[in-house]
Each structure stands twice: as C-alpha cells, then as structure tokens.
Amino acid sequence: MKHQKKFLLSEQDLPTQWYNIQAEMPNKPMPPLNPKTHEPLTAGDLSHIFNMECSKQELDQTHPWIDIPDEVQEKYAYYRSTPLVRAYAFEQALGTRAHIYFKNESTNPLGSHKINSALPQCYYCKQEGDTNVTTETGAGQWGAALAYAAKLYGLEAAVYQVKITMQQKPYRSYLMRTFGAAVQGSPSMSTRAGKDIITREPNHPGSLGTAISEAIELATTTPGCKYALGSVLNHVALHQTIIGLEAEKQMAMAGEYPDKIIACFGGGSNFGGIAFPFMRHVFDGTHKDTEFIAAEPESCPKLTRGKFEYDFGDEAGYTPLLPMYTLGHDFKPANIHAGGLRYHGAGVIISQLVKDGYMRGVDIPQLDSFKAGILFAQTEGIVPAPESCHAIAATIREAQLANEEGKAPVILFNLSGHGLIDMPSYMSYIDGDLVNYRVSDAEIEKNLEEIPLKID
Ligand SMILES: *Cc1c(COP(=O)(O)O)cnc(C)c1O
Question: Concatenated DSSP letters for 50-106?
Fold first, then answer.
C-alpha cells in the first residue's frame, strides 16, 4: 500500500479558536513594566500603540481559548489548512528510523507564517475604527504580510524598511508595494526620529531599532493609525497557535503523536505557534515527555547564553520592559542571512517556559543551517527560508542522536517559510562566501551590563 505523504484538513475542520497558553501555565509570565515608573502596564497603556483587542490578548491570563473572528477565519481559509507532510525522502537521505513530519507554513501568498498574525491584527484595527497601520521590517517578511492583510481589510499600510536591506534585497519591497503598501527606506525624512538621524549622518544605512522608532512615532502622532508587531509579543504567538492546533489534528490523521517538536527561533512566534497547543498535554499529563526545541542561530544565542532579566524589546529603548531571556537590547548580532532570527530577546511566555524547564534552545551555526536547507531542498523539493533552515538543522541533529541511541522518535518541525525570495543568501552560501559567527563570552557579558532592570 502507498504511504500517505501529506495530511490536510477540510475547511470545516479548521480550528475556530486560538489557544492562550498563558491561562494554563504553572508559573504565569511576569507583567511588562513601564520603563520609567516600573509599574505593571495595563491593556489601556498598550492601546496607545496597539489596537485594543490585541492589547487585551497580550495580558490575558484567564481565558485558555479565544475565538477567531469569523472574518479572520474566512481569510485563513484562503490558504489554510497548511499541509502536514511526512518527509520520507529526507528521512531516507539521513538514514534514520525517526519519523519526520513538517508543517509547511510556506504555502500562502506571502511565503511565511507571519500572515497568521497580520490578518487578525488588521481585522481588529478595522473593527475598532482605525484606518491605517504601520510597522517596521528588516528583510520584509513581516512587512509583506502586513501589506497584504491591510489591503484585505481596507486599511492603508505604511512600512519602514531598513534602508540597506531595501537596497540590497529589493524584491520584498516591491512585494509590499504590489499589495498596496507605502514603503519608506528607514531612516526617512517623514518622522522626527528619521530626520534627526539623517541630519547627523546623511548616509545612515538604517537599523531595525530606528525603523521601530519611526513606525511608533507615526502611530502615536497619526489619528486612526496603529502599530503592529510581527513577533515576540504574546498576542502574536497566540494567533500563531493556529499552526499547532491544525498540526495536532493532522498528526492524529497520521496516527502518530510527536516526541520532539522543533522550530526556528527569532522572537518565538512560529515556535510558540507550533509548540503551545502540544504543551497543554504536558500540563494535563497526557503527554508529559514531549520535548520542545527552539533552534536559534549561534550568532544570536539568547536562549542558551542570554540572561532572564527585564529588558527593552527594541534597540532604542522605546518599548515597555519585558521579562525575558536577552542578550541586552543593544546587542548587535552578526549580519547572518537569517534576518528574522537576529533579535536580542525571546518572547515572554517562552522565556518563562524555558526558565521552568519545559523547553530548551539549541544553537545552530550558519553553515550548518544552509547545508541542512540544501539537503531538504534536494529531497523534499522545497527551498526553505534561511530562518527555517535552522529548524531543519536541529531536526537532523535529533535524528542523528536517535540513530546513535538506536531509537525511532516521531519528530515534528515547523517549516516557517520558503526561501525563494532569499536566493541571494543561497547564492552567498553556494559561492562559498559565508562563515560562522560564534559570539565570545566577553561580548555577551559586556552587553548584559546594559540591562535596565535585573531580576534577582
Ligand atoms: C520572521 C520569521 C521567523 C522568525 O520569527 P519568529 O517570531 O521567531 O517565528 C522565522 N521564519 C521566517 C520564515 C520568518 O519570516
């Protein structure tokens, strides 16, 4: 009999609620703090920047299930369910007895999981009477997702894209424009923050920190305009639980349950998205031994070598203080190609779960990540995003470990996106121009001195 390759849910079986893990965590996350007064923030404080519904979701520690609005379910149905795929050819190339499954989040119009949160964020803005959304973007995955979602719900989107990335990798900037967004290279002359920088340094290449400052300034000075973030925050991970909730049903269709769950780790939204729904079975004792592994780049090792402290979410220090594993908010990771993983901190929920021993991080060198991605492309036929290559490399490690131990675990990893717009990264790897970047202990120590509020 032919083995089934992929598992899809019919539209009527799509999840209708997201899973809010905060409500069921044994130790709840500590609150975000006002950086000046160190007072816990309320949803009302957050709603100056974000829409009200997301501000509430951010702090909700009571409701384990949150309804997905009908209008969002309708847009999810354009591309969901995403396939759960058994990676037979990849398994064979690895010579492993492990069963390897991946959840393919690359099959939507934007090519990554970020659309799963862009849609509800734009929907809530529209509901609450906003007319505009704004954000920053590095390589452009988030900006593109927001541009598309804004268009679907009839909002104007303004995206500040780091200038140097916009020049070096122009395709996503045109993808955003294709979906109707106004895209500005940051620093720009359209905000005070941008103007100040350009006046001091006319050829400033831009940075995510600066782009965040510009977007927040636009949101707080423009009536009807809200800021939207594509990772790190609790409400973003909440929306991404659609990934794990589908995967749970699809694994059941395959007649298996994962022993190990793996995803790449930037701020934690795709990892949390696939992990949290399965984590509830750790909490309720039905599957106590599932392992959860976050694959971060060796050049930005916040989970394995960072510290659990209150730190700013952005480089410039504009955001609230968040209790998280961090390398210090002005840590400058090497310019690796997995741009989406170059973030100094880890989401608050995941940080707490790592601290409590429910999850762990592993560090992947850049060259290992591309080597893994190329093996995956040559076996399964999908060119993975440079970020997703980290999850694949971690999966290979686990499969090899299982071989050594004579075990055959079921491994599930999340393929967060495809790499077809990231071919310049593959070009550098194939041409032999890439290197590994290991951060020294001294560098990490030095950066951690800048942390604004230490937790004892
Ligand atoms: C943004 C991005 C990531 C990293 O973000 P998380 O919030 O950690 O998921 C990973 N993969 C892809 C394809 C991305 O676009």
Answer: S-HHHHHHHH--S-SEEEPPHHHHHHHTTT-SPPEEE-HHHHHHHT--SEEEEEETT
